[in-house]
Hints:
Rossmann fold; five-stranded parallel β-sheet; binds magnesium ion; alpha/beta; six-stranded parallel β-sheet; about 270 residues
Amino acid sequence: MTKYNIKNKKFFLLDMDGTIYLDGELFEYSLDFLNYVKSIGGKYVFLTNNSSKSINDYIEKLKKLSIEVDSSNFMTSSQATSLHLRQHSKYNKIYVLGTESFKQELIEDGLNIVDEYTNDIDCLLVGFDTELKYSKLDDACRILTRDVEYLATNPDLLCPTSFGFIPDCGSICNMIETATAKKPVYIGKPNPKMVELAMEANGFSKEETIVIGDRLYTDIACGINAGVSTGVVLTGETKIEHLVSTEFKPDYVFENIGQLYKMLID
Ligand SMILES: [Mg+2]
């Protein structure tokens, strides 16, 4: 269902890996597309479920690829989780199973974060922890023997690498679920929270907004859940045959970001 003409879009919520680059290498036309968005007075915001990196890590990464960005060009699952926690300030002590940079971001936002077990922890938060140690899993399972709030940044099972895949936050949560039979509430895509927060922060309407990404069950589902237009690019995880069976049908299908760019300037 095409709700609105794509040429009226001004607010582009973009996935990064598999959408504008792969393995740190930009796709052809990614820069042209981003420059076009700026030239029409629009804005691009990168939505990422990856909670192992901070906004500053991403700014540095994209600047190296010649993409003009500041912190307003990002909405990460870490930011959305932090906002969610601050809106629900009833938690006194939040145990974070995550990277040092993730914990630092939450501390800077004024949240009471701990990484050692105590029996008064009232919230467990799991991120994509690329610094995972067994003792953290032990702590998490112990915390879940009590009735606490259980949140996680993102449901992704796998994170792509140059050699294949590594386990992501969803896989860590699956290990914990096997041991405790408890599942977290996931804040990242496909939860519409990141899209809603990004529209609110930048003052764009649903009609002006489109989510572009390479994964149907996270990127496209997130846009659908938020009630905005969606476009899939076939340069990442989704292959054309997946579009037939999926319950998450995008409004647009692009072979690559270049095809979207050409459609916009045509
Ligand atoms: Mg992707």
